Amino acid sequence: MNALIKSALGRFVAAVAVAAGIGLFAGGASAQSRQAQEGFEYKLVKPEQPTEAAKGKIEVVEFFWYGCPHCQAFEPMLKDWVKRLPADVSFRKVHVPFQVQAHQQLYYALESLGKADELNSKVFNAIHNEHNRLDTPESIAAFMAKNGVDKQQFLDAYNSFGVRTKMQRASQLAQGYKIEGVPSVGVAGRYLTAPSMAGSYAATLQLVDQLVDGERKARR
Fold first, then answer.
1. From CA 114, how far away is CA 97, in angstroms rounded?
2. How open is the CA angle 145-63-53, to the nearest 5 degrees?
3. Which residue stretches of 36-100 are H helix?
4. Which terminus of the chain has fewer CB atoms gathered within 10 Å of its CB, N or C?
5. For residue 84, what is the DSSP state?
6. Parallel, antiparallel, or unpaired: how do β-strands 89-95 and 58-64 relate?
7. In this model, does residue 138 exceed pLDDT 60?
8. Domain residue spans in the chain?
9. Cβ within 8 Å of residue 19, ≥6 positions away
10. Is the pLDDT confidence value at 79 over 70?
């Protein structure tokens, strides 16, 4: 989805290629491999963005928005991919501040309660399949109560300073990566790709694997 971050300025900066030998299976796993092109299948992030990964780990970040149908479609494949990540890769999701602030606030409230992984798919389903917009504190709290989350506990998290701080940091990171559409995937604060660049959801994850491998080799 090509929603725009109002505060995002400028354009992606093209620079040197990521590393020799990084390839892309364009359009899916059955297509023939070829060398990925910087500026097309992936972009370099300038300046490099900070990561939250522990020392020695390579961070992968998915930028998403609950209101994005493409993010919903990507979610099952992404969850399966995350289950197979090697020990030196750290994954996290970052909800961008697109259009409906309540969605970003909802995600970080769930994260603070340790419920995001459990309920992300249900939130996507409510918005896109049940046509529940979840765009007010009242509608969100009612949805949470229906799904086994204490209403007051959720509202306390939703309105907390900690959640507001996470929202601010997420928005800053999205701006730093110059996110213009979601889903997008950042690697090590240095690279950015997306289905709109790589050609498909599967091709995106294949390219992320290769970007991670290139970063791993560069650190040796």
1. 21
2. 100
3. 69-83
4. C
5. T
6. parallel
7. yes
8. 68-179
9. 214, 217, 218
10. yes
Query: How many C-beta atoms lie closer than 10 Å to residue 16's C-beta?
Result: 7
Side-chain-side CA neighbours of residue 197 (13 Å): 28
Give the whole-angstrom CA distance, residue 183 versus residue 185: 7
Contact (CB, 8 A) for 52 and 29: no
- Measured CA to CA in angstroms, residue 212 lies from 37, 44, 217 at distances of 16, 13, 9
Contact 108, 92 (CB under 8 A): no
Tell me the β-bridge partners of 25. 33
Percent composition of the chain: helix, strand, coil (DSSP 3-state, to 5) = 45, 15, 40
pLDDT in tens, 60-69: 999 999 999 9
Q: How far is CA 215 from the centre of its chain?
A: 19
Could you tell me the CATH superfamily of domain 68-179? Glutaredoxin (3.40.30.10)
pTM of the model: 0.85
Residue 34: predicted pLDDT: 63
pLDDT of residue 35: 73
The DSSP-derived string for 182-209 is SSEEEETTTEEE-HHHHSSHHHHHHHHH
The strand ranges marked E within 77-214 are 89-95, 184-187, 191-193
Condensed to tens digits (0 to 9), the pLDDT of residues 93-103 reads 999 999 899 99
Taking the alpha carbons at both ends of the chain, their separation in whole angstroms is: 37
Neighbouring C-beta atoms of residue 82, cutoff 10 Å: 16
Band (pLDDT 50/70/90 cuts) for residue 72 is very high
